[in-house]
Fold:
Amino acid sequence: MTNHVRPLVVGNWKMNLDFVEAVHLGQQIGVILKNRPAEHTDVVIAPPFVDLRSVASIIASERMLIALGAQHVNAQENGAHTGEVSLSMLRRLNVDWVLVGHSERRTNYSMSDELVKLTLRTVATSGMKAVLCVGEESGVREEGRHLDFVAEQLRHAIEGLDEKSRSAVTVAYEPLWAIGSGTSATVEQIAEMTSHVKAILRSESMAESRVLYGGSVTADNATSIITDGGVDGFLVGGASLKAESFVAIVHACNGCYAGKR
Ligand code: PEP
Structure:
């Protein structure tokens, strides 16, 4: 099956790579993409905060067609928030994208649905683009509540956002049990959730928003998921830490895009 929405692949480097290693990986990705461009696919890399400035310089000096993302942002503009980073700080570093509500933030750092909503509003009303992460734990799926659970997470996060800000939101479905586990959700599970999320987005005047899948995506399973899972791209963790596997995922998406000439 071909895809009519321009795909997006986001690499989430998590808490990996110091700034020297990050520059190296950024350069490697840039070289491979220069030799074999993926002109029908949008590519974003999201390094740790401390690497952003170095990676931004490499992207600019090498004129790479890659956008810069951050893994998190504080919902406030400034003030007494030790250890946190604000949106204007990110903007000065040419960051265009921010991950909002990644499950590791929700689970390990107590990011509530309410805080996800506030953070999404901060990003989406600023002119920057947000990747809103949603997804259920295994127990929720075992109880058959995964569709309702994700719908609730999504509706809560976008509640009150105006139409223009909604257009800045991409949704990433990331079942917690698939993240970093080495076993992705099945294509059928991904297709079911993607069509559910897209139906909600249509009913919320967000029909243009892309829906990504994340959770143990690799160079080996990317083609079948993008072909039959109904997704518009991927949020990639582990496989984004090696240039070859990350770019192979980008090319899998690129090859599926039906709008190409
Ligand atoms: C993620 O953390 O967003 C992710 C999808 O990780 P992985 O690809 O390693 O499962």
Q: What stands out?
A: Residues 19-35 form the longest helix (17 residues). The mean pLDDT is 96.
